[in-house]
Amino acid sequence: MPLIILKQDLEIIKKHIAEIFPYEACGALLGIIDGNDKKITKVFPANNKYRKIAWDAFEIEPKDMLEIDKLSRKNNIEVLGFYHSHPNHPAIPSNTDINASWPYYSYMIVSVKGNNLEDIADIKNYLMPDKINKPLSEEIIIAE
Ligand SMILES: [Zn+2]
């Protein structure tokens, strides 16, 4: 199921990730399932509970999860996935990512090398159907 995201929403994610570098940034992807598409209509840059220089530890702070929950109810949308960054590491799921994953969600991983938008090195999106098989790549379509 391709993930469709507006260019402006992807910009919000890129800015958040570049700003937080060298720390790992994370956030939620909200929207609707429309036929065979996951349409992202709102991105929520969150605070990482693990505020340290780590490329493979992220967890959205509980108060942000509450906000995300409220936002989805108010707008009649749902959490379709999460994004997080891999500072100075490739956009490939770590073992920690796989172990912390849920089958339903899309996981967007952004590789970043510095504090500028040009330092965004790679953006990939995965489904992690279980903890035994390899994550599956899921297409990202950027809409204007
Ligand atoms: Zn990761």
TrEMBL record:
Gene3D superfamilies: Cytidine Deaminase, domain 2. Pfam families: Prok-JAB (PF14464). Residues 2-131 form the JAB1/MPN/MOV34 metalloenzyme domain. SUPFAM superfamilies: JAB1/MPN domain. GO terms for molecular function: metalloexopeptidase activity; zinc ion binding. One of its GO terms (biological process) is proteolysis. CDD domains: MPN_like. This is M67 family peptidase. It comes from Candidatus Acididesulfobacter diazotrophicus.
